[in-house]
Amino acid sequence: MPIDDPPRGVPLSLGTGEFFQLLRDREPRTRADLVAITGQARSTIASRIDALMSTGLIAPAGMAGSTGGRRPATFAFQPGARVVLAVDLGATHARLAVTDLASTVLAASDEPLSIAAGPGVVLPWVVRACRDLLAAAGRDTADLAAIGIGLPGPVEHSTGRPINPPIMPGWDDVDVPGILGAELGVAVLVDNDVNIMALGEHRTAWSDVSDLLLVKVSTGIGAGIIADGALRRGAQGAAGDVGHMSVPGADHVPCRCGNTGCLEAVASGQAVATALAAQGLEAADSADVVALVRSRGAAASQAVRQAGRDIGGVLASCVSVLNPSVIVIGGVVADAGEHLIAGIREAVYRRSLPLATQHLRIVTSRAREGAGVLGASAMAVDHALSPAAIDALTG
Ligand SMILES: [Zn+2]
């Protein structure tokens, strides 16, 4: 193939960072394979391979199958070359993992931690936990390529700072990437907990689907949007905040955001618990609601199903805007069994147009409580292996 006629879609000059993306599928390839795929000169390919070998990100992967004569060497991506730290901080817990560059978990921990203790307590704790976990995985901070962290509140995407997070006193506008980056010496990617759940669920369970909505139903309600295969955060990072969309007929219900009639004020685990407590049942939070449903409490089951209908009414609007092929329901209340999802299905299928629901699946989370950590890992890996980061590493 002449050099001025590369395959369609491949840039004429493929830098090392772009070239590396071809190898991220971990398939071993020969120099000749890579010349054929890229349409680039053999000498260019050789220098790209040398540059990547020097970082350890690719390595010889044995010999290709014989086609007669000398068998050529193959090269493949080495996900173990470096590691990332993945952190999922909730209201009262911290899940952490050290993973390789294919998001395989090498060491993990799950500890109680109150986010309301503030950044002065939580961030030094994360730094200590990170060092402990790296040691447990037999690695050190020099192996660390990036950190991905999810926070239980709104995060401004361009700065990685939480903005007016309702359940995180003391965290408003705190420079989380700056503080952690100064301690651990790597890039720190921050997002809200629902976005990293959406990313984790998509990568681990639905990678063949390009349009997915993940809805977390727990103390609050939020959604993460995967559209055209990528996480969509919107202009500031606030996309998917479905918890404060309004529910018809609920104008009298006040919400913690200052507005009234919000979905979260009517249908969150906390809202259902409060309503059941008013009926004299012992329900203080989402976990109590789940326990009541599991013990076959009729009032709790009916309340969760109605919450599902209210959520489904709002999701029907989301379906009209986004046309997802899968809606994944996660969060503590999803553990209440079929009642929540049955209510959601009922409302979505009733209120959406047939073309949008023809192939729509509404399911519970497969990655479950691991979704956040896996998504945080994917976010960190995507940054560490981006063309720009690889070019900086090999430049
Ligand atoms: Zn609200």
From TrEMBL:
Gene3D superfamilies the UniProt entry points to: 3.30.420.40, Winged helix-like DNA-binding domain superfamily/Winged helix DNA-binding domain
InterPro entries xrefs: ATPase_NBD, ROK, ROK_cs, WH-like_DNA-bd_sf, WH_DNA-bd_sf
Domain of life where this protein originates: Bacteria
Pfam families reported in the protein's UniProt record: ROK (PF00480)
SUPFAM superfamilies assigned to the protein according to its UniProt record, in alphabetical order: Actin-like ATPase domain (SSF53067), Winged helix' DNA-binding domain (SSF46785)
UniProt family annotation: Belongs to the ROK (NagC/XylR) family.
Protein known as: ROK family protein
Lineage: Bacteria, Bacillati, Actinomycetota, Actinomycetes, Micrococcales
